[in-house]
Amino acid sequence: MIRNYFNYKVKITDKPFLTESGKKYDNTAAISFLDENKKEIAYVECGFIDKEEVYALIDQQQPVNLDYCYIENFSLADYRESRNIEKKSYIKLYQFSAFKTFFDSRVATDFSFAEFDDEYENFENAHFLNGATIFQAVKFNQGGVNFSYTYFNDGNVDFSNVDFGNGEVNFKNSWFGSGHKNFQDASFGEGNILFMNTEFNDGDVTFVNTVFQSNRVSFKVARFGEGKIGFHFARFHCKELIFERTEFGNGKVDFRTTEFADAKVSFNRAVFGNGEKSFEAAQHKGGKITFRKSIWGDGNISFEQTELDNSLLILDNADFGKGNLSFNNAHIKELSLKSCHLDYYVDLRISQCNYIDLSDTVARDIIDIMPYDFSLDIDTINFSGMRLIGRVYLDWRENNVLKLIYNQKDTSLREKAEQFRILKENFNSAGQYDDEDKAYIQFKRNEAKAVLHESIKKHNYSFFWQYPVYAFKMLIFDRMGLYATSPVRVIFSNIIMIFIFSTLFTLIPYVSDNHLSPLAENSTFFENFGTAAYFSAISYFTVGYGDILPQGTLFRLIAGCAGFTGVFMMSYFTVAFVRKILR
Predict the structure, then answer these.
(1) Residue 380 above 90 pLDDT?
(2) What is the set of domains in the chain, with CATH numbers?
(3) pTM of the predicted model, to two decimals?
């Protein structure tokens, strides 16, 4: 393929030209390709055929073979006008071939409303030197068409409303100049659709309302330039859709309301330029849509209102550049943002999602999961390994944070503890201190369980002392004060402890010689309990009036325990109370 030339010139000579297939032309077209300095960079000789000769073949319904030739101003619109045929009447072309053909036109090479027979149509290595290229409303029927390595120099190419039939459509390694590439309302049939390594260059590329029904549609390593890329309302009713390592250039990339059916969709390593990227209201019936290691450039990215109820949307290791990322009001079965850098606002207010993976992400701005004008039905969120430099907006109760984390099936207790720690720090920076306390409690509980299980796993026999130690810690630090987050819980625990000591001081004298002195003679059980409660309280709070004394070794030990417990629990209360008011 000859490309990157600045100009060209054509000279028609009387010298006959013989093609490789043995076809003879009476004249030879000598084409010189020039650079900006008018220096020849390439030279080609091919057969010359007059367009009227081609029109005569069409009249006679003869095969139209233009291989290895040069033709000027070919236009089916002119053909209809010269034959007084209605403008949109279909013109049948039989056994058409244009292998290594050079089309040249002052205005446009026009194949509009052509109907090709069922043979495989070949434009491989064809070269449209000048003028627009029009294939509007063409019917290729069942044969398929080959535009591989075709060069569209002008770049204004119209394939709108084309029916490509059920054969293979091959644009592999084709090259388009700057201009509008229009495939709007085109219909691709059951054959493979190949735009692999295609150069679209600058200008809008339109696949709006286009239908793809083949097994495989591939834009792998295709390159788009500056301009809008529109797949709005496109329908990919195929089994496999590939945009791997595709370069979308700068400009809006529009996949709004696109139907992906149940295709396996891959945008892995795709590169998006600077501009808005929209998959708003896109639909997928089930399977995977993957954007692994994709690069998104600058500009906002929208997956809002997508309907992916049975689909996995995977954006692992993606680089989102400078711009907001939104999944607002989307329905997604599973969303993975694992190992992504989230440097700008991320709207994760998803209407329905079973699982969101935020593990190993670096979040420098706001991740918004706070319900606002609609409820969020999110089952699980994985925060494992998140580096939270920014802030996560969520509410402990409204988002049901306990469910989000405890629904995780593949994370360890240590990982769950770490996630609660991350959220604890997040709530602290947001001033959500009640939510901070709840997260801190869950962090300590999971950390304690993790230490227990890890210790027993390391030394199996250690369960003899690990379980009692764990039970003691849970009783003292958790149940009695919720890790110093609840002064009310500590006060209630103090009351219970005083009641326990009071009960001991009341009941033990009935079975031993230990007693409190002095006690009134013939006192009732409730009178004894009142005295015991008084003694327990003054011992517990270390007041020590001395009006009632413990008699017996056991009672002295219990009184000492009451004093120590009181000192400990009042210190516990002080810590919990000060922690509350100082924030």
Answers:
(1) yes
(2) 487-581 (1.10.287.70)
(3) 0.87
